[in-house]
Target: TetR family transcriptional regulator
Amino acid sequence: MTDTAARRRGRRTRVESADTRDRILNVAREEFSERGYDKTSVRGIAKAAGVDSALVHHYFGTKEQVFEAAIEVAFAPALNAPEAVAEGPLDGVGERLTRFIFGIWENPTTRTPLLAILRSAVNNEAAAAVFRRLVASQLLRRVAAQLDQPDAELRAELAAAQLVGCAMLRYVIKVEPLASADVEQVIARVAPVVQGHLTGP
Amino acid sequence: MTDTAARRRGRRTRVESADTRDRILNVAREEFSERGYDKTSVRGIAKAAGVDSALVHHYFGTKEQVFEAAIEVAFAPALNAPEAVAEGPLDGVGERLTRFIFGIWENPTTRTPLLAILRSAVNNEAAAAVFRRLVASQLLRRVAAQLDQPDAELRAELAAAQLVGCAMLRYVIKVEPLASADVEQVIARVAPVVQGHLTGP
Model:
């Protein structure tokens, strides 16, 4: 093999690796979404992706780590957005955050993985740990960092509690009239509460 | 058989029936708590109670109806209390309701069945329907009935959303610092929000 051919081959292998990794990740996201954390296995993911289980472990590690990677990809748009949400004038942060969260839940494409992670987190301690790390460190702490308060994290979590509870009753358990209420009407009521938690007395 | 003996025997049969029904109900509550709705079967409940599946169906009907009966028993104290909670001056209802809900969650005996119903409701549509019927009609509507507002039910549900979200983040997913925060500190922050939803402008 010439030097150039070896280099070309090396490049192709790297590209193929990235493709395989992405394929595994996509399959993992689908499996976790459809079956939940408990019923999904590394073996099942490997089989659906057409690779060996060892390769899944090689790329991601344990089942918990595969789950974390899959969620991180699914939530990239959601977890990256808060920069724009938390930025800007502090007195509008409640409405921006509320609008952002309802936006994710109102959109069926982003609602499905969110439902899956919520279901998994409620049912399984390992999945709950992933939820804690991702949501707490990536979303809540970034919101809290904008607040100039000694209890900023607790404030951010109580604001999140209002939003998580709304999502539970409106989208998961579907309690009426909340489930069918106009989303703008709900945002108008919830945003000031979120604002109050974050910046109130 | 004399008339008196027959009557005595009839009484004993009724007592035995009530005992069997209670035994089935207790077993059902345990099975649903431990395994969740999906993994619990009428057959498994019957086996654990030492009776035939047909008897479980005879007393309660479908699996969904067994679940509803089991939850109703587990929640009798919780579902009966709101009368005291919703009564009294309206300007203290936020604190009474908040204190009541945190009281249930802080007590391990009442927390376990609550966790089970929440897990089941998140995972299963039939269990969610039971949750809706019980919580919405028995708890929320009774709170809403005390409010003299056209949108009383939506208000009660948004208040409940704050409480459900707090329970999710504090007791189920255990996000810090909320999970370890002093319960009185949390109540002090949440009660005014619940009050605001119920009676605010």
About this structure: Residues 75-199 of chain A form a domain with the Tetracycline Repressor; domain 2 fold (CATH 1.10.357.10). Chain A has eleven helices and no strands. Chain A has two domains: 3-61, 75-199. The mean pLDDT of chain A is 84.
